[in-house]
Write a structure and sequence with these properties.
The protein has helices at about 90-95, 95-110, 140-150, 155-175, 225-230, 235-250, 260-270, 275-280, 285-295, 305-320, 325-330, 360-370; strands at about 1-5, 10-15, 50-55, 55-65, 70-75, 80-90, 120-125, 130-135, 140, 175, 185-190, 195, 205, 335, 340. It is α+β, with helices and mostly antiparallel strands. The chain has three domains: about 35-135, Phosphorylase Kinase, domain 1; about 140-320, Transferase(Phosphotransferase) domain 1 (Transferase(Phosphotransferase), domain 1), CATH 1.10.510.10; about 325-370, no CATH class. The strands form five sheets. Strands 3-4-5-6-8-7 form a six-stranded antiparallel sheet. Strands 9-11-12 form a three-stranded antiparallel sheet.
Length: about 375
Amino acid sequence: MAITCPKCHYDNPETQKFCGECGNPLGGEGRPRFSGTKTLETSRQTMERGILFAGRYEIIEALGVGGMGEVYRVEDKKVGQEIALKLIKPEIAADLKNIERFRHEMKFARMISHRNVCRMFDLGEDKGTYFITMEYVAGEDLKSFIRRAAPLSPARALAIIRQTAEGLAEAHRLGVIHRDLKPANVMIDREGNVRIMDFGIARSLTARGITGVGTIIGTPEYMSPEQVEGKDADHRSDLYSLGIIMFEMLTGQVPFGGDTPLSIAVKQKSEPAPSAKKLNPQISENLNTVILDCLEKDRDKRPQNAEDLLFRLRKIEADFAPPERAKSESGRGEKTDSGTWKSSIAVMPFVDLSPQKDQEYFCDGIAEEIINYPD
């Protein structure tokens, strides 16, 4: 049974003590709140299908509600293209400093053009309502995928994390950090490709001072120690969050849990990260070391950039590469040193036959799981 967050209306598993989207405590108003990530709320009525917003965007469906506001799939009637539209909550937009920050950072986020990053388009305003437009990605968010399929096989998890790291590498190259990287902000599209979402609260490394020191932005489960302390966060904070995502994909749980967002934030700052391999023996020593390195409290001890992390991930991923296709395609299997033939199978592509044609990314995953299943 899912527990709906009373603040952002995100559906959480019944075992969760706080919202995985906005960090709000679940199951009682008496629990202490983590004031640094407090999400402001609005009673705005959800817009229905067919409504034309701002004289340009026709509502197709509501996609969800997050910490910043409501997200819709819309058709941009001006260009005849489906995009995503995020309505910023009035209480957030009422602070002109927030709008200034969004506008400033949008200029940098729009520069990111990469296959593993969702494109950001524009910050607009209509009759006092501010909104952000971005690329619409059809598929499933990684948080939902983890809930359904975790723990993932090391090969599957590596494919996802490597693509995420490639998108981060391009963003960091342009001087943009995410600062709120979490599974809910990572989409797996219908082709099985990873897309990082929501660089809307990212800050340019080359333009400091828009967000004051001491302001905490993020979700406690995925925040770096420096973010918890309200310190300036750089690209290594994203790599810390990436380490938590790796841990969660491979074990089915986050490394630091607690009854309240505050208790989790304290652990992010003070407790050493547990070993993922102890929870999932299928994880190799090399991969476990990479995860622990990303989760170092001291950012100087983490991988210093996404390219360094990618180099290590690719080396580990090579160990999970399937055997040469020729051996399987021959129909005879693999010849052993003794001269006998070892049985093998050829895995043919799976085809999406669903009416909606929205299961292609599962097809790729099934084939990969079969190919890499242990002997």
